[in-house]
Amino acid sequence: EVMPTLDMALFDWTDYEDLKPEV
Amino acid sequence: ADPCYDEGGAPRGCVPGLVNAALGREVLASSTCGQPATRACDASDPLRAHPATLLTVAGGSASSVCWRSDMLQRVPLNVTLTVALGKAFELVFVSLRFCSAPPASVALLKSQDHGRNWAPLGFFSSHCALDYGRPHAPLDGSGGPGPEALCFPALQAQPDGGGLMAFSVQDGSPPGLDLDSSPVLQDWVTATDIRILLTRPAVPGDTRDLDAIVPYSYSATELQVGGRCKCNGHASRCLLDAQGHLICDCRHGTEGPDCGRCKPFYCDRPWQRATARETHACLACSCNGHARRCRFNMELYRLSGHRSGGVCLNCRHNTAGRHCHYCQEGFYRDPDRSLSDRRACRACDCHPVGAAGKTCNQTTGQCPCKDGVTGLTCNRCALGFQQSRSPVAPCVKTP
Fold first, then answer.
1. Residue from the list A1, A5, A11 with its beta carbon closest to the beta carbon of B391
2. What is the distance in angstroms between the Cα of B379 and the nearest Cα belonging to chain A?
3. Are the beta carbons of B310 and B285 closer than 8 angstroms?
4. What is the CA radius of gyration of chain A?
5. What percent of chain B has pLDDT over 70?
6. Of A3, B2, B274, B374, which has the most beta carbons under 10 Å away?
């Protein structure tokens, strides 16, 4: 079974703004 | 066929041929007759001039016209003839044919730095101690343990009234010294300039006595400086460069007027002179096609057993290492491409959330994944995990 790739839109960056990668 | 390489293309020691290095070179004479003009010599009249150019002109021996000094009437009676060879030569002999009775004392000097400093090669005199403060050379021509300037008997007049100074660099050099293996002998035979000092005329009486001197002039033709263009065994000929300077046509990864250093990229081992047994060619650094420059490191050279000391500089195409033989941090080796391929190193491309870092395994390309994350770039949740909303723990166990 191949799992789907991580969906960046699902992540909540509220508490991790400084970790958020530049797109 | 290039004499510096064998039939199989392997380098081998090579030397330029023996030539008269003085041929066509300008000779500076400290005294030349004809200025002002006299009945016998007029510098402005080609038919009555005796310029120093006659000493090194082609076919000089066939000419009946000789260089002639001014009439010397006052002590000292020194006249110098200086010829710049244009670059370093390895001398074999120096000869000068005199058109009148040869001088009673002659000193032969050489310079290795284009005329800044001078050192004696040899002397000819009937009074060595008096003229040069030296003993007469032993009859067998042997000297001390190393090459040295010896004082030989005065030049003898020949039946035609002239005379010949013939100096071999072997005179003054102890037998058994081998040019290949003796740096002292290599130094002894090397010269960029030759100077001949005519210090005492062949006239009767004490030439230190002003009253005893009758007017006298030196006269000579055909100055020959037999030698090989010095290329340290790395060229078979010398050429004129764009500026008209004589330089070696260097091979074996060497460069410089005398092939005296390795070319910039050929520094995998230190420069050495070629010998009959060992070519000592400069070797190109091994950079797998990813660098254009390298430097030599003696410590690495010693550690390698004198095999390789080159260190590549500014490895390109995301490569790194002494030979640009592995990938920079953040890149990994593509197993489907050769090491010399411009795209031999691929970016890790680790997932910005799923990976715990940006550096992957340089061999496999595997990024370090956070718990529950899998895939080469850590871009998927592992079996039994599902995506969360937290970028710190992107995959959590499935309830």
1. A11
2. 5
3. yes
4. 11
5. 94
6. B274
